[in-house]
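Re: folding output
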Amino acid sequence: MLAERITSGEARDLAEVLPPEIAPPLIPPADVAQKFGVDEFIRRMSDRANTGETIARRGVAAVFMTLEQAVPAKEFQDVMDQLPNEFQNI
């Protein structure tokens, strides 16, 4: 899902610093990042996970917190720079 929102170059950069078993989903199907806000991001995650939006929001928050701890600070900031500021408050 994140790979659909950031540029393909940034998705590849992020995939390079993650363990190989979790990196493939970060390679986007298209080279163009889709522009949508955090509410749409949560809605799409909710649909894909077949769960409510509250649970999806908690899951997204957990993924972002984990990602921040798992990758170099510069790489995490590069990802966040491509997202609207509202993603800072998930």
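--- second protein (sequence, then structure) ---
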Amino acid sequence: MAEARGRDTWGHTSAVLAMLANCNRDPKKSRAFSPADFNPYAGRCRRGIPITAGNIDVLRKVFVPADGAGAAR
């Protein structure tokens, strides 16, 4: 019940914060803010790099020395 009240309160607060930020931003320099930008309960979409065999090979080439030095600590 307490979490629901917090979510509701942050919904109102984040709407006010977004309106305030949009009133004071330069439209030529930044995008418009949404209430989700200020709401800690809003779900964020995660945009990451998918892990593939090619990505792992690149990381090995960059971070693992070819001579094997430093592998054992």
